[in-house]
């Protein structure tokens, strides 16, 4: 597994990098057959350290977690525990998904935009009804079954996932509803 360990505005020492590689490697190896790479990002927020881990699996699925703590090692350990819990919860489904799928998940390119939010201090009428684009990025839309899409959304901790249903042309959406259930939009 390839590791990319970085810090935002903080230095990451060799001891922490070794700790990350050993602990994350053993936690992920238990539940995922062939993880391809892991991104570990450390940052500081006020008086707490923040650790974010993103692990890409060979099947094309991704799992991620984020944790806060007063110590940097503690933030990593909490985050690693979250990743391990997600993978343990979906171990059987991950293995079934890998067995049924001969090739990795197919990804389709798309554009992703970040729009400026409306601020409450603007009491005047907006000049235009067109929102201001803050950033434009490239994103990937996976081709999945509905079950795989729900699993991917849960593994990523995302509130919504846009995907292309295998064998269909249109885009589908799964999302977490306010009542705790999962919603699916199939055009």
From TrEMBL:
InterPro entries: HPF/YfiA_ribosome-assoc, HPF_long/plastid, RHF-like, RHF/RaiA, Ribosom_S30AE_C, Ribosom_S30AE_C_sf
Location(s), subcellular: Cytoplasm
Gene3D superfamilies reported in the protein's UniProt record: Ribosome hibernation promotion factor-like, Sigma 54 modulation/S30EA ribosomal protein, C-terminal domain
GO cellular component: cytosolic small ribosomal subunit
GO BP annotations listed: negative regulation of translational elongation
Coiled-coil parts of chain: none
UniProt keyword Membrane present: no
CDD domains cross-referenced by the UniProt entry: RaiA (cd00552)
Pfam families: Ribosom_S30AE_C, Ribosomal_S30AE
Sigma 54 modulation/S30EA ribosomal protein C-terminal domain boundaries: 130-183
A Gene Ontology molecular function term of the record: ribosomal small subunit binding
Subunit structure: Interacts with 100S ribosomes.
Physiological role: Required for dimerization of active 70S ribosomes into 100S ribosomes in stationary phase; 100S ribosomes are translationally inactive and sometimes present during exponential growth.
NCBIfam families: yfiA
Protein name: Ribosome hibernation promoting factor
Lineage: Bacteria, Pseudomonadati, Pseudomonadota, Alphaproteobacteria, Rhodobacterales
Name of the gene encoding the protein in the UniProt record: raiA
């Amino acid at each position: 597994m390839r590791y990319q360990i970085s810090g935002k505005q903080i230095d990451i020492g060799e001891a922490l990098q070794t700790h990350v590689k050993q602990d994350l490697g053993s936690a992920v190896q238990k539940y995922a057959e062939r993880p391809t790479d892991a991104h570990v990002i450390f940052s500081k927020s006020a008086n707490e350290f923040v650790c974010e881990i993103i692990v890409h699996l060979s099947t094309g699925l991704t799992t991620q977690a984020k944790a806060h703590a007063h110590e940097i090692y503690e933030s990593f350990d909490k985050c690693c525990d979250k990743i391990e819990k997600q993978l343990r919860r979906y171990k059987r489904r991950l293995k079934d998904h890998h067995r049924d799928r001969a090739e990795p998940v197919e990804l389709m390119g798309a554009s992703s935009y970040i729009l400026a939010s409306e601020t409450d201090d603007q009491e005047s009428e907006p000049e235009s009804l067109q929102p201001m684009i803050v950033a434009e990025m490239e994103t990937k839309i996976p081709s999945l079954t509905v079950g795989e899409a729900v699993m991917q959304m849960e593994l990523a901790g995302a509130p919504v996932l846009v995907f292309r249903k295998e064998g269909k042309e249109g885009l589908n959406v799964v999302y977490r509803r306010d009542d705790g259930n999962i919603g699916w939009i199939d055009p």
